[in-house]
Amino acid sequence: MGLSDSVQVLHNGVKIPAVGLGVYKIEGNGVYDAVTSALKLGYRHIDTAAFYENEEGVGRAIQNSGIAREDIFITTKVWNDQQGYENTLKAFDESLSKLGLDYVDLYLVHWPVPGKYKETWKALEEIYRSGKAKAIGVSNFLPHHLDDLMESAEIKPMINQIELHPQLSQLETRAYCHKHDIIVEAWAPLGKASYFNHPTLQELAAKYEKTPAQIIVRWDYQHGIVTIPKSTKAERQKENADIFDFELSAEDMKAMDEINENKRMGYHPDEFPY
Question: pTM for this structure?
């Protein structure tokens, strides 16, 4: 078992690698180098967004990698000021052009912009039916947003990408998504490395002879959560992916679960300055 064969299966049958690389706001040549090193290390899942302003660099790295397009899973997202039906269709074409690709594997609504996200979803359904996105989903949606969306949706979201790490375990949203067969994907899965010195993390890292980051990624993996830790450094990328040679016990998973404080690094979706 390793990076290439650790996958989750979306409700439409599409497979998504369980561990990928996030490239939030990695600029210029940095994103090209980060994606290039990740692909060399065996990563096959890259997560970008229009808002990150680095789709061109991601696309160049993919094209120059020598890896077959169908073997790489690419996600991008529509930003808040691009939402609405027509705007989203246009934004998607722009993203595809910047990436230099014929299709993406996953297209997401980046945030639930009030009064817009249902229209935006209609555009995503059209994009999905066209085959230009192999899967569609949402990001930063809470259960009440998903309930509202599904009142008019013809296609159920396949993924909900949310801020999720041990101090923000998102139990309610995870339970909702599990019930509705929506895969949960974690952004900021390492909590920006801000509490790696937590006693539980330190204790488990010592016990399993792993780093706090590896303990967290493994915790995600055993919970069935897709995770996209961000790193520009090859050695960190390698570390974050080296989680398939050990397994956390049920007792240690419970200890990890108890780190939760419902503490966010980013905005609460209902309080974002839309």
Answer: 0.97
pLDDT digits (tens, 9 = 90+) for 93-151: 999 999 999 999 999 999 999 999 999 999 999 999 999 999 999 999 999 999 999 99
- Burial track 253-264 (b if 16+ CB lie within 10 A, e otherwise): bebbeebeeeeb
Measured between alpha carbons, how far is 229 from 175 in angstroms, rounded to an integer? 22
Q: Which of 43, 52, 107, 221 is catalytic?
A: 52
43: annotated active-site residue: no
| Domains of the chain by residue range | 3-257
The response to whether 178 counts as a known ligand-binding position is: no
Q: Which two tokens stand for residue 148?
A: 């509202």
| Contact of 223 with 215, CB cutoff 8 Å | no
Q: Are 190 and 201 in contact (CB under 8 A)?
A: no
Q: Indicate the CATH number for domain 3-257.
A: 3.20.20.100
Two structure tokens written together for 234: 């090859």
What residues contact 200, with CB distance under 8 A and at least 6 apart? Answer: 255, 256, 258, 259
